[in-house]
Amino acid sequence: MRRVARRSTRARVLECAIVLLVAALVTVLLGGVANAQDVAPTQEELAAITERGKRLYEYDQAAWHASDAVQVANPKVVEGQRCIANKEDGKWRVVFGKLSEDGTRFEITYEAHEQAAPREFAVRKEPDGRQDEGFFLHAARAIELAMKDFGGANRPYNVAVLLASAGQLLVYLYPAQTDARIHPLGGDVRYLVSADGRSILEKRQMHKTIMEKSPSKQTKKAVAGYHTHILSDLPEDTDVFHVLTQDPPVPEKVATAHFLYQVNIDGTIQIEKTMKRTK
């Protein structure tokens, strides 16, 4: 009987030790997560957001002005066609066309090339049967894939595709501007898609609610915009895009759970304040 009792006591001691060890590990892990939220992002991380936001702005501008140029050349021919841009050798090349039903070809009807002035594009009609089997094909696939996942929307949306690392693609869906005075922010998603445009690797909801602030008639010049961001502890690519797309650009303050950021008029991001943790 003693041996049994002694073994039982040792077992209970061992169980208690295991419970205490597990509790300690959980405390350390949870503490690590909490502390990680308070760690400020590096300059490299903020610079990467700036770089993507600037490229998104350039893409949007290229697609806009190339579309205007094509409309002048032939207002109806590109209706219902996909507009895709790519920067090659420092200049934007924008094509208009359709993805074949089986997704193996992208048929190009018109092509626009950026000229010396950023807003000027030379347009040319492509010969019948002109097809692309490279970037534009993969981008067109990625767009269809992302739009299918995104679903319908009760307002116009723009779509952009940027090259990421390892040939992968970043697809952005963001609300289109419908009023020249109002620059919408929010309701936007970024997808990371495989290089061939066939698989979604990651989906990032950047903002949920769409904010559309009308400029105040009483205020001649806005000092800075402001919004809170609850989905992450970092500004988003579209925060940079939002600042740059305004004319003239207006800084935007972004308040997350732990930091107050400012996106400057050149797209750079700085941390203005670290928020105190509420107990």
Which regions contain 5 or more consecutive residues with pLDDT less than 50?
1-36
CA radius of gyration: 25 Å
Shape: globular
Largest sheet: 5 strands, antiparallel
**Series of H and E elements:** HHEEEEEHEEEEEHEEE
Residue share in helices? 25-40%
Structural class by sheet pairing and helices: alpha+beta
Note the beta-strand portion. Answer: 25-35%
If you average the pLDDT, what whole number results? Answer: 86
Number of helices: 4
What is the straight-line distance between the termini?
A: 52 Å
Question: How many DSSP-defined strands?
Answer: 13
Descriptive labels:
four-stranded antiparallel β-sheet, 279 residues
Describe the structure.
The structure is a single chain. The protein has a domain at 43-214. β3 (106-114) and β4 form a beta hairpin. With 279 residues, the protein is of the alpha+beta class. The chain has helices at residues 2-38, 43-73, 135-150, 237-245, and strands spanning 82-88, 91-99, 106-114, 121-125, 131-132, 157-163, 169-175, 189-193, 200-205, 225-228, 252-255, 259-263, 269-274.
How do you describe this structure in short?
With 279 residues, the chain is α+β, with helices and mostly antiparallel strands.
Topology, pairings included?
Blueprint: H1 2-38, H2 43-73, E1 82-88, E2 91-99, E3 106-114, E4 121-125, E5 131-132, H3 135-150, E6 157-163, E7 169-175, E8 189-193, E9 200-205, E10 225-228, H4 237-245, E11 252-255, E12 259-263, E13 269-274
Parallel strand pairs: 10-11
Antiparallel strand pairs: 1-2, 2-3, 3-4, 3-5, 6-7, 7-8, 8-9, 11-12, 12-13
Helix pairs in contact: 2-4
